Amino acid sequence: MPYISEDTINRIRERLNIIEAVKDYVSLKKRGRNWIGLCPFHTEKTPSFNVSEEKSVYHCFGCNAGGNMFKFIMEIENVTFPESIEILAKKAGITVEYKQSVSDETGKERELIYKVNEKAAFIFHFYLKDRPEGEKAREYLKERNINPDMIELFKLGYAPDDYHKLHKELLKEHYKEATILKAGLMLKSKKGNNNYYDRFRNRLIFPITSGLDKVIGFGGRIMDSNASQPKYLNTQETQIFSKRKNLYGLNITRNHIRDKRQAIIVEGYFDLISLFQADIKNVAAPLGTALTNEQILLLKRYADEIVILFDSDAAGNSAAIRSISLLLSTNLKIRIVQLPSDMDPDEFVMKHGQEAILKLIQSAPSFLKFIIKDAFNKYDRTITEDKNKILQFIFPIIKQINNEILKSDVFRYLANELKIDEHILLNEFSKFSNTGASPILKTANKPKASPGSLVLAQRYIIMTLIENPEYIEHVLKKANINCFDDPLSSTIMKNIQELYQNNKQISLDILIDNIQDNKIKEFITKESLSEKYNHDVKKQLNDCIFKLRLHKIDEQIKIKNNKIKELKEFNEIKKAEKEIQNLIKEKNTLKQNKNYLMV
Ligand SMILES: [Zn+2]
């Protein structure tokens, strides 16, 4: 696979600053020299996400995420480095130039999986639209009132009732067996070797697309409600497909969600398409699971309010409630729409139309009201025993709430409705909170062992060099690379040395791209924002190098002294003693010329 030329990357760096790249996802405010906002990688109420325009890096003091703009796009869009370059190049209005080279294997493989998925989507779509086999599916869609333009927009397809059709077709197009397997489009038969069969058979196909408009997987739905197979079948987890991290339809609906700042969540793919067709376009659907944390963070980029459209029978479902409780710890507003019994959103909108469903959404209760009402329906709030059951049901949910004002509103309301003194209620709640063995307390981090002074000295040197590259030559002359025995510092130092020897520019931004380890990237971005490394640079560097060199000599003396004890030959002993003498001499010279960097 071709790789992207360095020139392209440099031109992106020139044209685009990190603020422009980040502000599509995070709303940023200027504070002092940096920009701050709510971190998109963890849920928080007060902003700890910092972006430095000057240094072209970001760092979150809450979850430690950090790096340059390419890393930011990789994390937030869940893409590889080359893909992040493509996204930013588009934004900067730059054409990406490729060079031919053997690129890394995973990138290559991901690219092949994208391609085979694209082709499979094309074949499924073709079967649905133009082949006699697709007649049944065409009829089915007509029955469900799905318009042809929706079939086009969502690229719906049909997988024929055949064990071999798709993969044979793909093999004919020269896609490799291994790629088709890795994309999850076919499975290996348990009987006999090299026997494959198609995963999706006799199903209506919904291609699932990433934010980059690439097909990452498929959902297949049976059309015969009496069949013994599961109603929905999704692609299994692959290198490019994770059902926890994606939402169906978002590639098409996200601009509508962004415009309204509201996302309507439905369960099924048909629900989503029906609503979209009825001109309710700010919709998304999880991929066969309850909402996950990752999906909530994804939605938070575009929406301030989440509206959950339940099937009536799912509303009381405890799994659903648990997933919604997750939303309470974010700052998102949540409302619940409960549809009349035995109806899903698809049927409702077909029968009653767009206005009826919009009315339901507008008058929908908040999640908390909904939950409390549900509890009141289940239990008798005049009986003490039942009051306890109601509190047992509601307390874990209240505990998730981050907003103190909202919390106190809920307590007042509950006290009033249950006819309990508010103080007693609060007391009961704090008992529950404290003794209900919170998992957060249990897994609290142990205090980290703080690095020793030698490690600190090494880290000081590398950070100072990143900030003040003019000292690199000096430091490389005075401190041997062997002085760096802290793995983190030595990795960075090796990278600095390499860039220096190749006459390359040295900056934080460039180091972040060169270093593979995420922990190290995070460390250097975090430290660079602390402004510790710009004061009294010469003296500090000098002291650190002195400390490291002295330690290295002491260490060698110790090793040699230990070795002498094992030696028997007189000549060898004499030689070792001489070496120790030399080391002591070196140590004294070092001490006398302690301020070599200062001169
Ligand atoms: Zn964070």
Number of strands: 18
N-C termini distance:
52 Å
Bound small molecules, deduplicated: zinc ion
Q: Unreliable stretches, pLDDT < 50, 5 or more residues?
A: 437-450
Helix content: 40-55%
- Backbone CA Rg: 31 Å
The number of helical elements comes to 26
Going by CATH, the architecture of the largest domain would be: Orthogonal Bundle
Please give a structural write-up.
By secondary structure, this protein is α+β, with helices and mostly antiparallel strands. The strands form 5 sheets. Strands 2-3-4-5-6 form a 5-stranded antiparallel beta sheet, with helices on both faces. It has a 5-stranded mixed beta sheet with strand order 14-16-15-17-18, sandwiched between helices. The two termini are 52 Å apart. The relative contact order is 0.06.
Topology:
Layout: E1 3-4, H1 6-15, H2 18-22, E2 29-31, E3 34-37, E4 49-52, E5 57-60, E6 66-67, H3 69-77, H4 81-92, E7 98-99, H5 105-130, H6 135-143, H7 148-153, E8 157-159, H8 165-172, H9 177-182, E9 186-188, E10 196-198, E11 203-209, E12 215-221, E13 232-234, E14 247-248, H10 250-260, E15 262-265, H11 269-277, E16 283-286, H12 293-300, E17 305-310, H13 318-328, E18 333-338, H14 345-362, H15 367-378, H16 384-400, H17 404-418, H18 422-435, H19 439-442, H20 453-467, H21 472-478, H22 487-501, H23 508-514, H24 518-528, H25 537-566, H26 570-592
Parallel strand pairs: 15-16, 15-17, 17-18
Antiparallel strand pairs: 1-7, 2-3, 3-4, 4-5, 5-6, 8-11, 9-10, 11-12, 12-13, 14-16
The protein binds zinc ion (ZN).
